[in-house]
Amino acid sequence: MTTLGETVALIHDWYPPGTAESWDAVGLVAGDPAAPVRKVMVAVDPTEAVAREAAAWDADLLVVHHPLFLTGVHSVAATTPKGRALAALTSAGCGLLTAHTNADHAVGGVSEALATALGMSRLRPIRPAPTEPLDVLVAFVPTDAAPPVRAAVAEAGAGAIGDYDHCTFTTAGQGRFRPLPGADPTIGEVGSLAVVEEERIEVVLPRRLRAQVVAAMRAAHPYEEPAHSLIELASPGSLEAGTGRVGEVEPTTLRGFLETVADALPATAQGVRALGAPDRVVRRVAVCGGSGDFLLDELASAPVDVYLTSDLKHHRALDFAEAAGPEGPALVDVAHWAAESTWLPVLAGRLAAALGDTVEARVSETRTDPWDLRV
């Protein structure tokens, strides 16, 4: 039996809540972590209609992209739309989990799903997610004492790179020093210059482990005062996770790219609208699932042919056009719900693959795009 808590932990592993924006509200909204989970429904919006669909299907968990409660509330009574949505879920014993900006940035998340749906390849984030700060410890050790020092720093958490551990680099050389009065040297004599065959050990470590790794090195080192240094590394950012995605498509025109977009996304009253010359060549594309207005300024001068996102406003689009000029990127605006719905089958597929026959995952059939007609 798979529990709600185990399912939430799995989804949080894919889309860590700690990567969500500070203003966001993500995580488990309702449900007992000890309750069994046999059916999971995924949707963009936690509307009352979606909640009732989940309840009618006997879902044990509804996973949504947009938060039901993004700001504080004073009541969840069933006299409001949000209250009725929550009541429909809780009365049916269905939990509710939100994965919002944490799912936007993640590998296998919303922007990546949108890019993949559009046939983009060689994907990279527009703004790479920050990676954990790293240091390099450099220590100088007598040759015969180098193996235990290397082992000690590895056991303390240094030298882990990807799927490898105990990663160090060593070069041979000579150490010189003269013990002064008051010293208790392991090698050499007070007042005399000592020359020792030594090894320079270099090892990378998470900055948060700095104190314990240095302490482990000192404990294993034979010298009274080990010569060592710490170098802070500049973070290049993640190559996979982060805001939006940029990638390549088969060369086409802007008009041809728009046709690809229209075919890939569910049809909406808004449709697909663009700013740019219809016959311009399109090879490199940037996308941001959801409202990507905040990237307009930097992408106006970026080396891309098109930027695709949602919820663009009149004045911001005009500013982008003027900043980009005729040689800069074209701009494409699609419906918010349509862009983010590309993530739903990805999430359902991941759940089915991870949980096997114990849990059935399904994409909601309720359309939550708010616009119905265009005349």
Fill in the keyword field for this structure.
375 residues, 3 domains, 12 helices, five-stranded mixed beta sheet, 29% helix, alpha/beta, Udp-n-acetylmuramoylalanyl-d-glutamate--2,6- Diaminopimelate Ligase, Chain: A, domain 1, six-stranded mixed beta sheet, globular
In angstroms, what is the radius of gyration? 28 Å
Q: Based on CA inertia axes, which overall geometry fits?
A: globular
What CATH calls the topology of the largest domain is: Udp-n-acetylmuramoylalanyl-d-glutamate--2,6- Diaminopimelate Ligase, Chain: A, domain 1
With strands numbered from the N-terminus, the spatial order across the biggest sheet is: 5-12-14-15-16-13
Question: Averaged pLDDT, please?
Answer: 94
Q: Unreliable runs, pLDDT <50, ≥5 residues?
A: none
Strands, count: 17
Strand content: 25-35%
- The SS-based structural class is alpha/beta
Oligomer: single chain
The major sheet is characterized as: 6 strands, mixed
CATH architecture of the largest domain: 3-Layer(aba) Sandwich
Level of helix content? Answer: 25-40%
CATH superfamily membership of the largest domain = NIF3 (NGG1p interacting factor 3)-like
Count of domains? 3
Count of separate DSSP helical elements: 12
Protein name: GTP cyclohydrolase 1 type 2 homolog
InterPro entries: DUF34/NIF3, DUF34/NIF3_bac, DUF34/NIF3_sf, N-reg_PII/ATP_PRibTrfase_C
Keywords: Metal-binding
Subunit structure: Homohexamer.
